[in-house]
Amino acid sequence: MNVFSFDNTFEGLLTLIFESYRQGRFPDEILSGEGSQCILFGSTIIVETDDRKAERVWKGIISHSSEENAHRIYRVFLADIRDTPLLLAKFICFTIDSVKNEETNFAEPLVLEVHKLHQKVCKEAHRVQMFVRFQKTVEASYYASFAPMYDVLPLCIPHFRDRYADQSWIIYDLKRNYGFLYDLKNVSRVVFDELRVNTQNGQLHSALLAEDEILFQKLWKQYYRSICIQERKNDKVHRQLLPKRFWKYLPEKGIL
Amino acid sequence: MISESSLEKLKILAGAAKYDVSCASSGTQRSNTKGGIGNASAWGICHSFTEDGRCVSLLKIMLSNYCIYDCAYCINRKSNEIPRTSFTPDEIAKLTIEFYRRNYIEGLFLSSGVLVNPDHTMERMVSVAKLLRTEHRYNGYIHLKAIPGASPQLIADAGRWADRLSVNIEIPTENNLKLLAPDKDFKSVLEPMKIISANILESKAERKIHRNAPLFSPAGQSTQLIIGATDDTDHTILKLSSALYSRRDLKRVYYSGYIPVNSYDTRLPALIAPPLRREHRLYQADWLLRFYGFGSQEIVNAENPNLDLELDPKVSWALRNPHLFPIDINKADPAMLLRIPGIGTRSVPLILLARQHQRLNSTHLKKLGVVMKRARYFITCNELRSQNIQELKPELVRQLLLEKKAIGNDGAVQLKLFHPMMPALR
Predict the structure, then answer these.
(1) pTM here?
(2) Using one digit for the tens of pLDDT, what is the confidence trace for B95-106?
(3) Which of B114, B123, B109 minimizes the C-alpha distance to B151?
(4) Choosing among A137, A237, A253, which should be mutated to test the B contact, i.e. which has the most B CBs within 10 A?
(5) Number of domains in chain B
(6) Which among A158, A249, B76, B388 counts the fewest CB atoms within 10 Å?
(7) Tell me, what's the ipTM?
(8) Residue B352 is part of which domain span?
């Protein structure tokens, strides 16, 4: 049984593929991140991330399928769940070993599984665009907390950067404890050691809020209530479209 | 300006606008400008969902709920004694920007009761859009309601600032419209639609010559029909929609199940509940018109003037046309695949791609998202054939489909149709 371990980065995964081909051993199990030295499996092949090797695999994927397929693999990697590295390793090897481009062969279980996970990741990224709520701070910048199911913030940044180009903002992933900061010029990745945020509802400490922030949250909540047609209430559809896990970050759903 | 006292105004003017079902923010793709705020996303983005299951994409609000008209179906008719108020254009613009900056909304949908006269009202609405676009350098979505009877010049102005314009027909036949809305006739509603459509065509033609010629209502125009307030059949309604799509190039026709807001008015039917199921079936039929290549005559006609409330319109059509089935999944052309019950705009592209690699069987189809419990009677694929509509006859298939539905159907109507969807065939 071939067990690989890597640093849980996308480049790391691509390096892992490179090493598999070089050593002629393909993964049955992939361990990621720290604490992955698992003696139960005997020897573990530890992969040292190497950007040049990763680059070669990236190009290999493109030449065996398409650029879109390579980007799809990257987006699926952001699903950030335990089994994705192994799924993707199998999928990449399948892509490279196939004579024809198989990326649209949806009757093949591996292709379909990657396709479905890709749709889920994209949907979650879209939901970040839908449900992120900014709070205006005393410094007139805008802050939002969120906890997406998958690690999709990087996919949403271009959208927010274009739309909110004239206001500085931070979008912070509370689940993974990192975020992105836009300072009117550049977007950079940030990690806060001490976050003055109520993790229950993502609200900033009241001393940090702009004077009129609470007023606009109240207005929004009032609006949300007023446009509901009571005669048409439909709880089931409501919950399908607006899953409960998002409620705590939405001012219109909160207790204010 | 905006303060605590705005809360009450917002309550009244949002409440007054809620019966307009349009919520789309799609149809325009526009990047932000330098130093500006906002952009428009081609497929639109919903930002929340109300407890009635409708999407909240735009700040849907009335400039004022004072009105000089007395339409029987409208909550804001002048004879109703309800609290009345107005926002100033400044207040609406400020509210839009503040909501937009917090990512609450995708843009503004502004409507209004008719104050003084149509031109006066339209002018105020246009001033809001202009204020947003110029002073606030706002590039997000704007939908303006065109007021019936407003001058062509004002409608032309509105189209320059807005992404979408709409005029609500509300009542599908002229006789019924005159009965319920004595101040209106078909001409007053259809005329502005004609002006908008002419302006859109003109702007499109000019942009072919000069790339920077001004846009006119780039996301097109839409309208709304109230369902169940009159005795008009689905046949009448869909014939009208179909004509609007082809002749006026409308982007959307919305159907709004009548909610008895003025139950004292005896010209209106007494309803226990709004006709939600009929509304749902009409939306399905509308989807067939726009994305599935159906003609309105195929869905409803003189012999079948109303939609079957128990089965969706595509199944009903298939049951009336058994001679076209079964269809071979591995050979049929895309247009025919789209006509199979249980197969839709999501699964067709997948089938087309997958069958280039190998012949598909029912297990594959199921995994690709085909609803086999409906599709099975209408297809053949790469396996032993199962009993299809030719052997079972339409009546029995109908029975079988209804039995399947009875399980786990609590009558809740799906309103997912409000999602922007991608057409498989363009």
Answers:
(1) 0.89
(2) 999 999 999 999
(3) B123
(4) A237
(5) 2
(6) A158
(7) 0.92
(8) 313-408
